[in-house]
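Researcher: Structure for this, please.
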Amino acid sequence: DFNIKYTINPDKPIVKPEGLTKATCKMEYKSDAKDLTAEKFVMVNVFNADGKVYVDHMEKGLPDAVMCGTVSADGKSVEVPAKQYLGIDLEYNAHVYVLTGNAKIDGAGTEKPFFNYDKTASIKLTRDASGKMAAEYPASLVVNCGRENLYIISDYVAPRFVSQEDKAMTPADPVFTADDIRPSTNFDLVKFVLPVKDVDGNDLNVNELYYNVYYNDAPYVFTPEVFKGLTAPMTDIPYAFSDTEFDIYPSGGKHTIYFYDKNYTKLGVQSIYRGGGEERRSNVVWVNRPVTGIDDVNADMREVKSVSYYNVAGQQIAEPASGVCIKRIQYADGTVKAEKVIK
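Model: Predicted structure, token format:
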């Protein structure tokens, strides 16, 4: 403990000038070391000013941090230097940098080859005939924990910036079903999918995509008193947002919330998209709260719509028989309760 040495990081995040016009771009990149034709993309914002280009959303934990490149005198290329400091990402508890490098494939010929990198001082993006700015393979951008050793957060092999029209779009409805709420004693685990397409199947800029969770009939306000990983109340949640306690986070194509405020009869999810100077919303997708033995003390007071019985093999039967069967009660509010009957 007496040999620990603390060093102040002298690096500072780049600050772009105020009042710049934003252009939305897809940053396309090679995504599979086994198939160099496979590509993915992320949405970024690009700002131009006085021979400089600034790009944000390079790292989801630091969406407003920017990397910077220098435009050539003829305007046909941009040079992006390495070791650009983005800031501290609390998820990784690390100083995050944009590095540059040449991709190489480790594990070639195996079942799971992967990209590794020889670091470089910079990469050059060149404008092609269609106006796209691109770096030729193997040139790459690497978002990394630290400025020296590779601890990669995300990597973009042969990045290509494709301009996108900023326009008003109506987001597709969330995917949210009764199976996506899992009750427990202290919280309900809630999961849902927010499509990144509009109602016509076009790609949305996820940096402009938000969602509301409806608690009964009103948008829910997430507060630091309940969600300890927040520093301020939130209603409109950004698509890529995670709190520091991981009570709210996206992962594996789904959004997850540990919902502690359990006094609801129904929850809803609504997507919000802000583009082209407009805000458009999807429909609210509703799910009734599952009825469980944990807290269903008022079930007998609700209006019953139907009652049915099933044997232990899951086959519906007319009346309870001797032995064990399952009684299924459906209430007028749409909720369902199942209970074991022994006769």
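Researcher: Any notable elements?
Model: The domain at 178-288 is CATH 2.60.40 (Immunoglobulin-like). The longest strand covers residues 94-106.
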